[in-house]
Write a structure and sequence with these properties.
It is an enzyme of class 6 (ligase). This protein is α/β, with parallel strands linked by helices. Helix content is about 50%, strand content about 10%. It is built from 16 helices and eight strands.
């Protein structure tokens, strides 16, 4: 079987993920009504827009060919319902889904309740896991995800309804792979190959690999942390002599707010901004965030501007006194980075502007969970759950 490195990824999008892609088809503001008919896109515009979703693509020529020949490709994403939703999962996902659906894709979001149980989330309590799944869907609706071409599918329901199709596929994938190859996929569960894995967690990667074919996905649109199992699916295609491999479009992993946190963690409330955080909470978290002057690499505040604020608004607005440079509106990340590295843009300028922008994005979500009794009770229930690793 081929190793993961055999598929050479293209890691640099042809257009920047934060601003240039939206220019191809106009603003990507999530305020637009789903019923608004966007202008028809050329195949190249579709490709640029879809490609901008991913930090890495395996393979770009396959993606270009797919979008040119298939008007309604199927994109697959999945998530374990395992706790409160942070902005990486909430806002970034809404931005990505809205780009994909504007390009004509149908997005199947796999609510992996059985997988969360296999991974011992919520202590394996399926009732709690289902409650969290419904809470996450509620947030995506409130934040502005365009649901016209989105299907939310519960893994337990779908697998049970087509068990005779699903389980032989899982078994065949398991049969064709040795144990070390499957253990190497443990990253997809937030584990490492050094962890003591349960038998259920060994079975998990075989099932996730099967999901891709079970859902008839053309594009696997998950995070970089899910790369190994997506590559496993392409290797499986080689084994069974299948020509049309799923295209891997892996999005960037938004870091935590603290120094050195490569991934935002919902289990650390001080490093994550939750989708229903109050304005004061967001302000405090951003104020305490790691943001060294004139340093771009590893700076979470700048990453949030690049991957959340600029794609959402198209601009990043800084308000400051004239003696500190006056107000300024940034429309590209390159312009902002140049000012930040030179020292003309200070963390004291960035943080209040970033907090203001994030609060503006999150306000509809807060309003929904405050004004809708069902949503309010759901949030109260989820907050009471203890997050398990």
């Amino acid at each position: 079987m081929a190793d993961e490195s055999d598929d050479k990824p293209q890691s640099t999008p042809p257009v920047d993920s934060s601003e240039s892609a939206s220019a191809a088809v106009g603003s990507l503001s999530l305020d637009a009504s789903p019923s608004t008919t966007p202008p028809a896109m050329t195949p190249e515009e579709k490709y640029q827009l879809v490609r901008s979703v991913g930090e890495e693509c395996i393979q770009e020529d396959e993606l270009r060919n797919l979008l040119a020949k298939k008007p309604n490709p199927i994109c697959y994403d999945g998530f374990e319902p395992s706790g409160r939703m942070h902005i990486a999962q909430g806002v970034m996902k809404a931005i990505s889904v809205n780009k994909l659906t504007r390009a004509g894709c149908t997005v199947k979001i796999w609510i992996a309740d059985w997988f969360a149980q296999l991974n011992n989330k919520m202590g394996g309590d399926l009732k709690k896991i289902r409650t969290i799944g419904n809470y996450l869907i509620e947030i995506w609706k409130a934040v502005g995800m365009d649901l016209e071409k989105v299907e939310f599918l519960w893994s337990s329901d779908e697998i049970n309804s087509r068990a005779s199709e699903y389980w032989p596929l899982v078994m065949d994938i398991a049969r064709r792979n040795n144990l070390p190859r499957i253990v190497r996929c443990s990253q997809i569960m937030g584990r490492t190959d050094q962890d003591e894995l349960t038998a259920a967690q060994i079975f998990y990667p075989c099932m996730q690999c099967a999901d891709i074919f079970f859902l008839k996905a053309d594009i696997c649109q998950l995070g970089m942390d899910q790369r190994k199992v997506n590559v496993l699916a392409r290797e499986y295609c080689d084994d069974i002599k299948r020509k049309n491999k799923p295209i891997i479009l892996s999005h960037h992993m938004l870091p935590g707010l603290k120094e050195g946190q490569e991934k935002m963690s919902k289990s650390d409330p001080t490093s994550s901004i939750y989708m229903e955080d109050e304005e004061a909470d967001v302000n405090l978290k951003i104020k305490k965030a790691f943001c060294p002057p004139q340093v771009v690499d590893g700076n979470p505040c700048l990453e949030y501007i690049k991957y959340i604020v600029l794609p959402w608004f198209g601009t990043f607005e800084v308000t400051r006194p004239e003696q500190n440079g006056g107000n300024k509106v940034f429309t590209t990340m390159e312009e902002l980075i140049a000012d930040y590295e030179s020292g003309s843009l200070h963390p004291g300028d960035v943080k209040p502007a970033l907090a203001k922008a994030i609060n503006q994005i999150l306000q509809p979500v807060r309003d929904h969970f405050k004004n809708n009794p069902t949503a309010r009770d759901m949030l109260k229930t989820v907050k009471a759950y203890r997050v398990t690793r």
